[in-house]
Design goal:
The complex is a heterodimer of chains A (335) and B (384).
Chain A (H helix, E strand, L loop, with lengths): L4 H30 L7 H37 L10 H7 L2 H28 L6 H28 L9 H4 L6 H8 L2 H24 L3 H31 L19 H21 L6 H35 L8
Helix pairs in contact in A: 1-2, 1-5, 2-3, 2-4, 4-5, 4-10, 7-9, 8-9, 8-11, 9-10, 9-11, 10-11
Chain B lengths: L1 H15 L1 H36 L5 E7 L2 E3 L1 E2 H8 L4 E14 L4 E8 L9 E3 L7 E4 L1 H6 L7 E5 L5 E10 L4 H4 L2 E5 H8 L5 E2 L1 E6 L5 H11 L3 E5 H39 L3 H12 L4 H33 L6 H5 L16 H27 L3 H6 L1
Parallel strand pairs in B: 5-10, 7-9
Antiparallel strand pairs in B: 1-2, 1-12, 1-13, 3-11, 4-5, 4-12, 6-9, 7-10, 8-9
Helix pairs in contact in B: 1-10, 2-8, 2-10, 2-12, 8-12, 10-12
Classes of the chains: A mainly alpha (335), B alpha+beta (384).
Chain lengths: 335, 384
Amino acid sequence: MMLHPGILALVVGSCIVFVMMLAASWQGLRIIAGWDFDSSSEKQLILERKTYLISSIIKYALGFEIISSLLFIYTVDDIHAMFVGAMCATGSLNANPVGWYALYLKIAVFFTASLWIMLNNLDQKAEDFPLIRPKYTALVFISVLIGLDLFFQMSYFLGLNPEVITSCCGSLFSDTSSGIAGDLSSLSIKPMMALFYFTSVIFIAAALSCLKSSAAFLRYTVSTLSIAFFFVSIASIISFISLYIYEMPTHHCPFDIFQGHYRFIGYPVYISLFCGVFFGMLPGFFQPLKRIVSLRDTIMRAEKRWLVLSILLILFFVIISSWPVVFGDFTMQGY
Amino acid sequence: MRHLKILEYALSSLFRRKYRNLSIVAVYALTIGILASILFLTHSLKTEATYLLHDAPELIVQKISAGRHDLIPSEYTEKISTIPGVGSAEPRYWGYYYDSLTHSNYTLIGIDDTIPGLSLLEGKMPSVSGECAVGAGVGHARIAGTGDTITLFNSKDTPVVFHIAGVFRSESNILTNDLIVMGEKDFLHFFELPAGRSTDITVSVNNPNEIATIAGKIKKLYPDTRPITKSEIIRTYDAVFNWRSGMMLTIFSSALIAFCILAWDKATGISAEEKHEIGILKAIGWDTADILELKFWEGIVISLTSLLVGLIAAFIHVFFLNAPILTPVIKGWSVLFPDFRLTPYIDIYQIFVLAFLTVTPYVASTIIPSWKTAITDPENVMRN
């Protein structure tokens, strides 16, 4: 275990979040067991009041989780200097591959916990709490995810050994390596660019038409497209966006863009991508809930906001990641 | 807009109970200040060390005898310089000298011509026998400047007088503070070292990619040596400083826990007046969620104020007062430790780490008390 200040902050923060989630899940289970909306007993009143406690715990927990994901990336990036051959977050993560699972789990927690909060907001706006049971069952699932995240994060940091010689991003994200990362890097740039801009145009077009029409299949299409866009974007960042940011035809690392030499461009890039995709996913996810009468109007109203937010964020993402491609000095004409 | 109104209300409500809240802010800021000082100090020491090591040779070769550092024969130098890829291999002469007059250790270096990176000099480098150049710390301790003399006792306890030809005013005082530079012959004579042996060898490597290979070759050629690469030194410094600051943070985290208990206690024991206030707010139409938001803003205001105050205090403590509380633990044991002024520098990452480390526990410990306040029943409160 390395006593690095960032690692300490992460471990302390994650432990606190996990304890908060355990408490929230426990209360959630008690609510599921004793919930009776038609009753006006004191017990029901107490349970209804507890829903406020749970939602505020989750909001804080999610806030901490998002900050801790950024802190995780930054810390992993910061400790690369201690590993021979590591030049950025990739090298540090390879020093103990469990770190990758922690990273994936953090992404999963971001999406599920944000979904939960949206669900909770909708539920609290309806007068009869229609989603109380699925909501609190999902809570247990999120707690498990956060617990796993804590576990992998701890075993990653505990298992780090500064003497280990790791392969740096230069070898993982290079054209000759095998595995997904290598495959992504060796994708030809032109087709990948075409796919990236095609998906973004299609997504924005679908989202715009959703604003006009209320057809259910359009909602599902937007959600599917936003998920597809997420993977296409990650692939594009590795395949060509990174090249233009680094101005180097062989450097495909998706983490170096967080570093100061590249003016921390990675933060707006990833934050706008994640949030844009998240809001894009919502309309399709909540489409089935429109069948519940007390939720229908709330969802319809919120949907417009989600779509507009999603379009704006994705546009922002596409613009900032295309900026170096269009206006940078670097060209890839020879490739 | 609604959120801003609630924030405004939170501010006015905090201001109404200013003494109570000030006491929380004071303790919170103190805790943050201590933790921030640790981070700032180690970070700037680390930066300083990295900055110094920038000019360090790519490879240092030491001879090891019975597991201890030993003098290295000069034929090693010749042989190493013939390894393909090696730019040059130079013997280095240096050692430590305990000065009983000032109770401090000096670092003595014997040189042929100049030391790279030490160009900032008042006066000149020693050129003839009997001359030396000293660091500002040594000059200060011995109350001597350019043109004065300095007397050192050699290994036979005979006084040797050196003329100070120059005083270092390095940008980074940490490098030269305890340094005395003299001619190579003077050095060998002063310590009575055997001829043909040096303290260690510095090796410059033309292609940085070949450093590890060359280190391996040297080790194979002379199994009794220890080649140390520059990156190894940097890594070790990094690890040592991280370890020290992590250790200190862990110790001082108990203060944080104590503070969280205090925060919990303060947040739980709300006054009858405050209860009354919340009862009225709810009676005039505030929702439980609004009260929770009010409490959230109060928490944010208190946390950010304390964070800011704590950071400013730590900044003054570390960069203007030179961290008198922490220096002995973090720096080390040397007596004539450079009285250097750290370069003020704040890393956003440090603030981020600190905020996460301190705000999270505070907020977490106030959630349940806030909720308890928020669910106050207006009717009950007003009846009482």
